[in-house]
Amino acid sequence: MTEEARRETAEQAAFRAHCKAWLKDNLPPRAAFRLPLSPIEIATTEQLAYLCAWQRSAHRAGLVGCDYPKEYGGGGRRGCQVVANEEMQAAGAPFLPNMVGLGMAGPTLFHHGSEEQKRRLLPALLSGEEIWCQGFSEPGAGSDLASVQTFARRERGRWIINGHKTWTSLAHFATWMILLCRTDKADKYRGLSYFVVPIKEALGRGVTVRPLVKMTGETGFNEVLLEDLVVDDGLRLDEIGSGWNVAMTTLLHERGAGSLVTPASGGKRADDPSSVGGAAGLVDLAKRSYRAGKRVADDPVFRDAIVRILIRQQALDEASRRTQVPGLTDHPMRLPLQHKLVSSELLQDTARLACEMEGMASSLYLGDDHAPARGQWPLAYMNSYGFTIAAGSNEIQRNILGERVLGLAKSK
Amino acid sequence: MAQPRNFGFGEEEQALKQNARRFFQERLPVDVLHRRVAHDPDPMRRPECLWDEALWGQVVELGWTLLAVPERVGGLGMSAAAVAGLVEEVGRAAFPSPLIATLQATYVLAACDAEASSAASGLLRRIAEGTPVSLAITDRRGSWEASDTDVTASGSGSVTLNGTAWFVQDARKAEVFVVKARSAAGIGLYLVEATARGVTIVPDAIVDLTRDQAHVVLRDVVVSADRVAAVGGKGEAALQAAEPAMLVVVTADMVGAAEWQLQTTAEYARTRVQFDHPIGFFQAVKHPLVEMMVRIDEARTLLYSAACAIDHEPEKAEILARMAKAAASDAASYCSGRSVQLHGGTGFTWECFVHLYFKRQKHNEVLLGDGAYQRMKLADKLIGPIGIGGGASW
Q: Which cofactor does it need (chain B) (predicted)?
């Protein structure tokens, strides 16, 4: 359903016209190579260069960071990022590669950074010149994030950091890392501090990035070893000991529940026959797939299953609009905190159903010439577990919803 | 046309909803409701019609029956969004009344009235004054297809109705029925007083304690020409035109009732202690409660979207309303099951209030077609009919 022409401010309407006009002529040419399905799957420098060129160009045209102040490299507008996102999505623009930067580090810097930190870091973050990654999880600190052991020791006004971060998407391309680490071993929560760390310049000098191979066979995330890494105190965000509070800002935005609308585009090109992942693609697939000699689109069992997905997709698409009407939600965090849970499970169920529809053909993977949609659905299905696990597993999301929204006793 | 960003929920709509919630909190707390409708647990009890007529009088005075009646016939002509918000509170209170039946009839009559039916406009004026009305549009098999009926209409000018309308909602509270009947010219709609000669209301013994239901037997019931609301296929068209709004009304009731189930069960999980913890501490209890919330919110978002489409984007109203009803039916089923299960042994007893909502939801689930039925209808629209290529994209 088009968002266009729903009641909006004069600034939003004019900006929408600008977006449309610019996107009409400035989408990048189709890539000659396979593009990843999401930013966390960027594997090659070729993919990265293509996507970064797109982010730079969209930023220069004012579509990325529109609501950030101009002195931080933004557009100084109000309520316009949501418009730009809608228009980029509608135009089938590629996604913006600096996902951790735009979605997590940017809002965190904006809320907790010093004036100097914001002026220095936000412009290159928004343009995509500097890629960001997130140093939160550790081998021993997953769902129980506050138990991180990476330790920053204060020494002559600087910090010496040692530890082991993992599941670090984009670390192999990143200039910066947002880092949650321990500065006091005696206090689980108030012993945490938050830094922004220039990891690229320290590669080989205290920072080691090692790729991890996902169950799909792709790389895309990493483990990062920090060994006696020296970090200037000017790269600490907020107070010593307030790291957990700062990390909550990051996590809220990571889960789509933050106060800032973060720049994003869908990354699906309407004219790309291999474009998968969305619920709308299911109907098309059902018309092209056969089971027991009959079109899947004529099978009542699959028709019911497809419509179930379309209903969930429609509700998800409209949920953010409802969030903006206070009288239509009883608790302000009720819908925002559901977003990550609902969207990741929908993605997973969509991909699973697509594989079922493909039947035997779903056994064919990326390297097979006969694979429908170039093997993207089995890939999307496996990758969907990244979304149901990452950013706080959905089990943790259910705990948070039960505790914060329904007031249930905290699970240990 | 496009939808407003706030789903059409302005200050007036919010105020209506808030006032309704306060009204029920004061006048119909759940223990009062239970005393009124659940005095006899006997499963073989005779069908009863238990409701508070004085409370209904107050509802009429508040103007709730006026809301959906078009302004041209003395109503307020308020949006479907306003009605949805109000009915959510009706569902949350499990209010036994002919309000939902009357609202549905209002939408059907308004669709007839749009075709310049003086019979329909006459009855709409009476609804505006508080007359309860119910639709008698379902056959013995419980079909919700606009073309199905077991009632026939014969004669021209003044017609004679024969047959039985089944599954008529709140039939003993209604003063007038809008009867669907087939004549040689097609499906028509005929207005019949509950007290008219030849009308017999046979109450059904139903599970739900918060409403009544009956089959209405019509034997040579004479309907004068000025009580014919639609003839010659126009009855079918009016029912189809009104269907999104009818679905929205039932969906709103379900969403409100499900929210009561969620909040009541969450409260129990916050206070009931076992193994030295309130049971909500345990994820086996916590996670199903969150799942209730997620499913309610899915249905609720679709409800507002569908209501708003009726007001601003009618070409999408049917699809969105069926999506909303499907989601709400499934959410209601899940929430009903969990509300009993998570209350443990006490949830299984007559004295625990959750059974009132469990039963109302079970009834709501099948009204106007359950989730599977709505999805079957949606598949024809979104995928295309079985065996035929194509299928509209939307």
A: FAD
